[in-house]
Design goal:
10-stranded mixed β-sheet
Length: about 300
């Protein structure tokens, strides 16, 4: 009996990109002992998805059996959408990708399984991939200090890109799912800190490349995005980090927000009000000593 390797995609107002994403996954190499499943959740899109449904209908019976399409009548955001995908997935490994992303590494399944086996003694929990914008050829990495990659294509780190990463399904039983009210922005930091607190590590790899088209369709206006980033980043710090880091996060992200929104004071106070309400409802469980030691060892960005 084969294990399952799940490819999980949230889609919002990008039916054509979603066709490309599913076609990309179908073209990826199989690996002995594992079968693919592809689950797409339509996050209450306002655009028609008839073109996507027609694409699924014309697939061969074998390919069609690999694809599950779910429509949500409510926009669950990124966190809620991923939680729905997790609940539906049968895979031992869960690979999350955006609907405007494609994996430029045909043997990704084999690679991921071998990496988890190779780093088993380090309690590997999450693997994050490199991104590239196909229009600008700009390479995207969560790691700021690229000297860390001079001697190795794989290094331990504390963050990853949501549009291309893998989580072992059984780890989520210990960390819990994504916090639903992280509608968009910083939800990866939240699950990353929970993973590290549970005693697992995060590996960044330069080997697997994800083409991220960054389609503006389905994205919020910029000021609202900056507000979510500011609010969610402070909430993440409050939930997981010592107070000194919560304070520095607040100062730095407030300045960032004010600069990016050109002193949108009204939105700032709306964001603070929402943050206060959510902080009161959130459980604060500070990173343990082992977790903090790991974060410092991998040169995590703790101050902001």
């Amino acid at each position: 009996m084969n294990d399952v390797f799940s490819f999980l995609i949230i889609s919002y107002n990008r039916p054509k990109d979603t066709i490309d994403a599913v076609a990309n996954v179908l073209s990826l190499s199989n690996f002995d002992g594992f079968s693919k499943e592809i689950i797409v959740v339509n996050n209450a899109s306002t655009d028609s998805y008839q073109i996507f449904e027609d694409y699924i209908a014309q697939l061969s019976p074998e390919q069609k059996s690999l694809v599950q399409y779910i429509y949500s009548d409510k926009n669950l955001g990124v966190a809620g959408g991923r939680n729905l995908l997790i609940q539906k997935a049968k895979g031992k490994y869960l690979l999350f990708m955006d609907d405007d992303a494609e994996i430029n590494y045909p043997s990704v399944i084999e690679y991921v399984i071998k990496v988890y086996d190779e780093y088993k003694k380090y309690n590997l929990g999450i693997v994050g991939f490199k991104g590239i914008n196909p229009f600008t050829n700009k390479v995207e990495r969560p790691i700021k200090d690229l000297t860390l990659l001079k001697t190795n294509n794989e290094i331990f780190y504390n963050s990853f890109f949501g549009y291309g990463h893998v989580i072992k399904a059984d780890i989520l039983q210990q960390t819990g799912l994504y916090q639903d009210d992280f509608f968009y922005g910083m939800e990866e930091y939240d699950i990353a800190y929970a993973t590290i607190k549970a005693g697992y590590t995060i590996l960044y790899t330069d080997v697997v490349e994800v083409i991220h088209k960054q389609n503006p369709s389905g994205r919020e206006i910029q000021d609202k995005t900056y507000a979510r980033m500011f609010e969610n980043k402070i909430l993440v710090a409050y939930k997981h980090l010592p107070w000194i880091y919560v304070l520095t996060h607040f100062i730095m992200w407030k300045l960032f927000f004010m600069y990016k929104t050109k002193l949108n004071v009204k939105l700032y106070f709306q964001t603070i009000k929402s943050l206060y309400r959510r902080v009161k409802q959130s459980q604060r469980k500070v990173m343990n000593k082992n977790g903090l030691a790991y974060l410092k060892k991998v040169n995590a960005r703790l101050w902001y």
